[in-house]
């Protein structure tokens, strides 16, 4: 079953027709295809010409988006409506980077501005050495304690913008409750020059609370008095009471609001570590880049709207061409954590199967998203991309002219990215495969035998998102692009991309199992009991 819009019928027919068409044929048929399928916004360039999608497909998809309420979605996102319809909340993460107060949201805008001011003040005092640790030495390291949305975004951004880092301060991240991670992150740090940020929207997250407790113990064991802990611990949360219970003074706490989803929150106080790592000016540039993408998303016509097109192509791939995976390959070592960030953004947001009327949907929603930095990925899963049995769309992310690009290896990296997109599209026919074997001196019988194995079907879709430099503004725009793409896809799938009820059950069960480990007793299912017995033995 496919999507509940009238355009689905024609789109399904087109999907069948296109099975016998090559992407190269589309270029021949649509003479301006390359230019027509390239758009620019907020410093990013999207080339979607290498998709098995004709101009007619795009027209139908755009008409379907209108039918699905694209304009209503764009309005609701920016005007504070209750877009998060299960939790009955607004989803106003764009307000975190708004350049001025949107009408009707002055109070929220002022709260954000105050928060950003407080955040910047702390960064300034730490960077200038006005704020010191308990021995009077300047702070040299910041450790972010958070998980999921309170970790993935800030961690990825800090890594991506390494060249912009403030030199005298090292920022580290610890998410996992596995004691090995905190031990590794604290290795080589001095308690009297270390500042922790307890980052948690709810401050109920087991991993973060446990790590905050361990960090506190580490400070105390290192000689910090209980009274001086405030010099070494900050918190960001919408649960100010819980922050107080952790013993973190109110002056050290940044607020968060229920209208910001965890995975959409790196622009808020959750991004404090980013501001510490890069400085206030760079953090503002990151926000400005995202805001430029917001403006584009809000105002550009759908046919020239980057997040809309990226979403519609996802819908086309998933609901009409049957893709169940989506791969992201950044050709940039600095962007190597981007797939992990996008995994939470898209899969926690759109990994749902019940629509806004409470009905189980009869069509596919979010595909599995995964990826790896190129060119490493070429030596891992590209075999599957080129010759595997399930065609899978790929987004290549390509910063063009960073310092590395002016080097020979940098140019080779770009060449590899372009070659992969080309190979996915063109593939290699059997005749071509046989000829190349013969040219290499293989005898005819052997060439016949091997040719089917060398055949690469091609006709596999990809997008290239390129930009001239990986800087804070372009990164901000790139992340906002995927945020909006996620919301548009949710709108077409009629699901809520802002809740995450699916992760709750495991948390509750793990609590009960933990109690059974501590106190003994407790009986679960036979498989759980068997392993529990082993752990306790
Ligand atoms: O378990 C999922 C989740 O709720 C995510 O949505 C969130 O980003 C993460 O946990 C961390 O939550 P918090 O910021 O409240 O600690």
Descriptive account of the structure:
- With 537 residues, the protein is an alpha/beta fold.
- The chain is 48% helix and 10% strand.
- The chain is built from 21 helices and eleven strands.
- The strands form two sheets. The protein has a six-stranded mixed sheet with strand order 1-2-11-10-8-9, with helices on both faces. The chain has a five-stranded parallel sheet with strand order 4-3-5-6-7, with helices on both faces.
- It is globular and about 80 Å long.
- The two termini are 50 Å apart.
- The mean pLDDT is 96.
- The structure holds 6-O-phosphono-beta-D-fructofuranose.
- The site of 6-O-phosphono-beta-D-fructofuranose has 14 residues, from loops.
> What's the pLDDT, averaged over the residues?
96
Strand content: 5-15%
Helix content: 40-55%
Query: What is the number of helices?
Result: 21
What would you call the structural class?
A: alpha/beta
Q: How would you write the strand order of the largest sheet?
A: 1-2-11-10-8-9
Spatial extent as radius of gyration = 25 Å
Ligand names: 6-O-phosphono-beta-D-fructofuranose
Sheet of most strands: 6 strands, mixed
Give the oligomeric state: single chain
Low-confidence spans:
none
Shape descriptor:
globular
How many strand segments?
A: 11
Kindly, what is the distance between the CA atoms of the first and last residues, rounded to a whole number of angstroms?
50 Å
């Amino acid at each position: 079953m496919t999507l509940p819009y009238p355009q689905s019928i024609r789109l399904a027919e087109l999907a069948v027709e296109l099975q016998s068409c090559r992407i190269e044929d589309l270029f021949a048929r649509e003479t301006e295809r390359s230019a027509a399928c390239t758009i620019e916004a907020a410093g990013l360039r999207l080339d979607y010409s290498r998709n098995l999608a004709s101009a007619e497909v795009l027209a139908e998809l755009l008409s379907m988006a209108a039918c699905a309420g694209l304009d209503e979605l764009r309005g609701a996102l920016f005007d504070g409506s209750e877009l998060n319809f299960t939790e009955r909340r607004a989803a106003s993460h764009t307000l975190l980077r708004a350049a001025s107060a949107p009408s009707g949201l002055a109070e929220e805008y002022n709260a954000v501005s105050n928060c950003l001011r407080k955040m910047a003040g702390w960064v300034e005092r730490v960077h200038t050495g006005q704020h010191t640790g308990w021995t009077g030495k300047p702070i040299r390291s910041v450790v972010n304690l958070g998980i999921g949305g309170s970790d993935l975004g800030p961690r990825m951004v800090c890594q991506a913008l390494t060249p912009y880092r403030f030199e005298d301060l090292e920022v580290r991240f610890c998410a996992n409750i596995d004691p090995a991670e905190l031990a590794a992150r604290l290795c080589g740090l001095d308690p009297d020059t270390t500042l922790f940020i307890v980052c948690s929207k709810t401050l109920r997250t087991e991993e973060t609370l446990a790590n905050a407790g361990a960090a506190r113990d580490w400070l105390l064991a290192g000689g910090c008095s209980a009274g001086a802990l405030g010099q070494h611990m900050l918190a960001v949360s919408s649960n100010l009471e819980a922050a107080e219970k952790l013993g973190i003074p109110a002056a050290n706490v940044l607020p968060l609001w229920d209208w910001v989803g965890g995975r959409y929150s790196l622009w808020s106080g959750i991004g404090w570590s980013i501001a510490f790592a890069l400085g206030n000016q760079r953090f503002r540039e990151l926000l400005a880049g995202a805001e430029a993408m917001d403006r584009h998303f809000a105002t550009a016509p759908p046919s020239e709207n980057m997040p809309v097109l990226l979403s519609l192509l996802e819908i086309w791939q998933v609901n009409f061409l049957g893709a169940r995976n989506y791969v992201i390959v950044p050709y940039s070592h600095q962007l190597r954590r981007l797939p992990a960030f996008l995994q939470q953004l898209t899969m926690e947001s759109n990994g749902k199967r019940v629509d806004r009327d409470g009905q189980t949907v009869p069509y596919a929603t979010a595909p599995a998203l995964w990826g790896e930095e190129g060119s490493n990925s070429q030596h891992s899963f590209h075999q599957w991309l080129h010759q595997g049995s399930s065609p899978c769309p790929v987004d290549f992310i390509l910063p063009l002219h960073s310092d590395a690009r002016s080097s020979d290896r940098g140019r080779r990296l770009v060449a590899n990215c372009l070659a992969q997109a080309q190979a996915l599209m063109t593939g290699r026919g059997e005749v071509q495969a046989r000829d190349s074997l013969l040219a290499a001196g293989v005898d005819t019988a052997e060439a016949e035998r091997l040719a089917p194995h060398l055949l690469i079907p091609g006709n596999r879709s990809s997008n290239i998102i390129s930009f001239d430099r990986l800087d804070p503004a372009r990164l901000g725009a790139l992340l906002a692009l995927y945020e909006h793409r996620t919301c548009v896809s949710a709108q077409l799938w009629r699901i809520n991309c802002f809740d995450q009820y699916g992760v709750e059950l495991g948390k509750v069960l793990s609590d009960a199992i933990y109690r059974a480990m501590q106190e003994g007793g407790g009986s679960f299912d036979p498989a759980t009991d068997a392993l529990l017995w082993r752990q306790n033995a």
